[in-house]
Amino acid sequence: MAAMASAWATSSTRMPVLQTSFRGEKLGASSFAGPSLLAETQGSGLPFKVSPQKLQVQAMKRIKGKVVCSSNDKTVSVEVVRLYTHPKYKKRIRASKRYHAHDEENRCQTVEPSW
């Protein structure tokens, strides 16, 4: 595959904009929040039209977890468990990571373990 380079910039509305160059073509700037990438690039004065097949932006995957600590004020700790395959031994491994999440009204409570 040809080398793909990307750089982050911000627009005048303070929204993240990704500028991408693919196989030497300058594709222009595409906003993640816009409803149609094709409509944004056609009206921007670019000398060519960009087809939607070249600019497909995928949303991030939502992660699920359980609240493991809710004793702090307006903050909860959420543990997210994911499974991945070891690259060499091909065994499925369970990895967990804790994230801090904002809880303005202190509504989230610790989940009782089910084992």
UniProtKB/TrEMBL annotation:
Family, similarity comment: Belongs to the universal ribosomal protein uS17 family.
Entry keyword DNA repair: no
GO cellular component: ribonucleoprotein complex; ribosome
GO BP, sorted A to Z: translation
Keywords in alphabetical order: Ribonucleoprotein, Ribosomal protein, Transit peptide
GO molecular function, one term: structural constituent of ribosome
Protein name: 30S ribosomal protein S17, chloroplastic
Highest taxon above the source species: Eukaryota
Cross-referenced Pfam families: Ribosomal_S17 (PF00366)
